[in-house]
Amino acid sequence: MTTRDIFIGGQWRQGGGALMQSHFPADGSLNATLHAASLEDLEQAVAAGDRAWRDPAWRDTLPHQRAAILHRVADLINARIETLAEMQSRDNGKPLAEARGLVASAASTARYFAAACELLEGELPTPRIPQVITLSGYEPLGVVAAITPWNSPIASEMQKIAPAIAAGNAAILKPAEATPLMALELAKLFEEAGLPAGLLSVLPGKGSVIGDALARHPKVRKISFTGGTSTGRHLAHVAAEKLIPASLELGGKSPTIVLEDANLEQAARGICYGIFSSAGQACIAGSRLFVHQSVYAPLMARLLELTRGLRVGHPFDAATHVGPLINEGHRQRVMEYVALAQREGGRVLCGGEIPPDPALADGSYFQPTIIDGLSNGARACQEEIFGPVLVAMPFEDEAGLIAQANDSVFGLAAGIWSRDSGRALRLASRLEVGTVWINTYKVFSISTPFGGFKESGLGREKGIQGLKAWMQQKSVYLATGSDVNHWSDNKKGVQ
Ligand code: NAD
């Protein structure tokens, strides 16, 4: 057990705020203690960031020089995959194999934004004025805020910090209360890779205190947030007051749809992964299942067989499919949703309980759970449970299916399983969601924009847009001739 310093304006030191702890969700043991950032620490981080991004030593760096820092970060990550994956698992309980994948993806994200910033080009719009050319280029925003949740820290944090830095900003990262360790480790990597002091600060602490103050700080010029919808709505108000951009990656209740011509084995396996990997603690978890009534029985039989075969276990056990939930409070919330679903008339087909294995007694584990017998209007089908709980419903026809799939305040993602890709594409175009997977689920590409429709968010991360979202466009008019403007001449009819 160690007490960790936090990273403020290029300095490692004890935070001035309250004591906080990181626990291993597998057994509740203490990973580390640290002091949260205080409001004074926030002031210092913002002041250092504001100096650092304006400093000509950084402001005038060329894209390939910023890219080189990101490539070094990626190299450092790749050299330390095991250590970082273990830290990620300890911080939030993800099985080690999953954590390794996330760590590797963080390295790829750094490389992608390194390449994107080198390739980013301004525009030379075709002139509409004689003897004037116009140029439009991209510039950094200044000091920017990144506020992240606990479910996949290294991935969501790199997805914000890499483009923010590639774009030339100074970033201040506020990780979730439960998972401060990975953000601090990322700061170490950026420091080791040569990022000048002040361009990255990491301020752990309570969202309602340090996160809120960060978002409200007058010098903060963008809020990039991933987390729950109610926090996102609050931050959108803060951004609106300040007239600054907000990028919001929020919750979901994503439908997965099995059409009558689907490859049922492929579908059952994909659905199982889509809801139960990360113990269902994923914004994109495919948590509402719609199956054509003609294949409902065989699909459900196979899905139940696969689900009952999943091993709930310690994150460091290579055989584990489903690790613990983030903490006991969250497990209670998930269990309350299962009880609610039962009160609403749902039948628990598998799971629904704390695993009986005494070896798991100290962790916040919960069995993968499938419920049917509910209609889409039930609260268990409308609210984000953020745990290993799937609700399954048969459907009769496509029109009814689309109406039900879209009957949600959320619009993050959807899955479609069908052998007819034309039909699947037509269906995809009718779904009110930001990402549709067809015959696959929960696979990601950093070059493909990601974000939500409706209450699942605003703005897009990833892709070239994911870099431009951290910049502002400046246009320049340049006269190429020596024409003089005669407007101020004291003559009638001039101009
Ligand atoms: P949360 O909204 O409670 O917290 C997210 C972050 O916001 C944390 O760092 C928290 O400290 C901070 N925060 C809380 N209140 C704040 C305030 N008033 N001002 C500023 N910051 C504040 O979410 P969570 O419980 O950590 O994460 C789970 C949620 O995140 C789920 O709803 C999930 O769907 C969502 N999520 C979305 C995506 C996506 O990409 N769409 C990805 C992962 C998680």
Describe this structure in words.
- This protein is globular.
- It folds into two domains: 2-250 and 456-477, 3-Layer(aba) Sandwich (Aldehyde Dehydrogenase, Chain A, domain 1), CATH 3.40.605; 255-438, Aldehyde Dehydrogenase, Chain A, domain 2 (3-Layer(aba) Sandwich).
- A seven-stranded mixed β-sheet has the order 14-15-16-13-12-18-19, with helices on both faces.
- By secondary structure, it is α/β, with parallel strands linked by helices.
- 39% of the residues lie in helices and 20% in strands.
Question: Care to give the gist of this entry?
Answer:
By secondary structure, this protein is of the alpha/beta class. It is 39% helix and 20% strand. The protein has 2 domains: 2-250 and 456-477, Aldehyde Dehydrogenase, Chain A, domain 1 (3-Layer(aba) Sandwich); 255-438, Aldehyde Dehydrogenase, Chain A, domain 2 (3-Layer(aba) Sandwich).
